[in-house]
Amino acid sequence: MILTVTLNPALDDTYEVPDVRFGEVNRVAAVHRRPGGKGVNVARVLHGLGHEVTAAGLAGGVAGRRIEEGLASLGVPASFTRTSGESRRTVTVVGAEVTVFNEPGPAVTGEEWAAFLGGYERLAGDAAVVVLSGSLPPGVPPDAYAELARRAPAPVILDADGEPLRLGLAGRPAVVKPNAGELARATGVRDPAAGIRLLRDAGAGAVVASLGADGVLAWTPDGLLRAALDRPETGNPTGSGDALAAGLAAGLAEGLPWPERLRNAVALAACSVRSPVAGEVDAGELPALLSRVAVRTEEGHAARSHE
Amino acid sequence: MILTVTLNPALDDTYEVPDVRFGEVNRVAAVHRRPGGKGVNVARVLHGLGHEVTAAGLAGGVAGRRIEEGLASLGVPASFTRTSGESRRTVTVVGAEVTVFNEPGPAVTGEEWAAFLGGYERLAGDAAVVVLSGSLPPGVPPDAYAELARRAPAPVILDADGEPLRLGLAGRPAVVKPNAGELARATGVRDPAAGIRLLRDAGAGAVVASLGADGVLAWTPDGLLRAALDRPETGNPTGSGDALAAGLAAGLAEGLPWPERLRNAVALAACSVRSPVAGEVDAGELPALLSRVAVRTEEGHAARSHE
Known about the structure:
With 307 residues, chain A is α/β, with parallel strands linked by helices. The first copy, chain A, contains eleven helices and 15 strands.
């Protein structure tokens, strides 16, 4: 079983507004309301691909109940610890461009965090892989991801930003998956290869950096690898990082070699970009996308990043 | 008691996003969640000013319960007919500019509409003024406002758009309150004075057209009057039309002369623009705003529109 942890989940609304006009009143053509938050998206993608998964985290209020009901209606097993504060909502407006509005999360009490930790240890004991994703709501310790990684007997994939990512490295996660902005914010350097090296030195077993149109650059036991699509997909990028994390988790659980793991993950991310709704993929499109992914060793980068 | 009718209410979220960037991911600095929909905003403004009011309409699902709970927590008496479909939400993003996203409403059944009509007749019998505001959800007859106006013993203020406004005139409402766009859409003419005349010919007892920075142009038994602020207020225009309708309803209930009625309504609308949240006014700002409203007779326009 793959365990996903979402400490700051959200009720995600995707608004389809074909001719959106900012600064004006817009009629929403279609509304897609789904349980969200990065780890929840990872769980939905894995479940959609037929993997055994459990979505854990913190959830509160009406929005929290809707997140749990939404996962239940999708058939995704979930185990959330209730919080007194209400879970947040996010709104993604999909028109000619994609605009995302993320509400702040609810305040979490020490008792609620302690209650989550108890349940987490039981779940992590049964997991083949643990995926820790997204922001931390107020009240959760900033080093929460280090703590969760230490308590997990299984290998951990960490997908976070800023301080939660920097402090999380102390838990020695098996894989860290930053995008270009997260990598730069966490390391203070602009060159991806140099930033990747810094994350490994700080405790990451492997680092998979998603660089948009440049594909992913990954420092693995097989060396520095780059996996990229022949041409970028256009659509809704929201959730494509979560699909990438889902692909990495599946490959880790199945013990696939790194090149194949990266190929699957990149194809899955591209598949997600094609979907108007974050966290949804059409597995039927995967074979065609897999054939468009090239994976190669980056000797040059590897050498430079050793200097 | 002033009765407001909101057949397509909404759970209104106002997102404060100071440096909003469209086409990107935005963190929402503050969220204001309030019961909304035009008639609900009218009821909230009137209640805030100390008037006896009842908010009626259709409400369904979790959003519908939240609208009722929100009104209860604000102390606004409400009497909504439950629908099987869930009430809609709206999102207003307040940054350098104001962008509104309106979800479509839920489908209403014939039985639900009939149940509302029964309750409406009882409430309208006790009302000094009835305010009919906003769009009609799918399933409600397009001539619903004509029907509701005919069944009301009290004078009716109609604030609607398009077909519901055009067909509503057959119910001979005492006052119709279109903005410039609604006036043009309902009459097909661009000149406000000419459009106002057409609405009167079609059944409106009086017409108060809100023309933005030009203030309001009103055809009343006292002639064609214009009421305008010395300089326009800047802020969140969402809900200012509802505050204008609230001012007109209060003036009608109190039997104020038209010039005073318009002065109060224009000051109230300006007060609403200053609030970041639709449907809220700071009554303390009213005296200063009232002194900035000029009301005069528009002989020229009146003459021209008689040609």
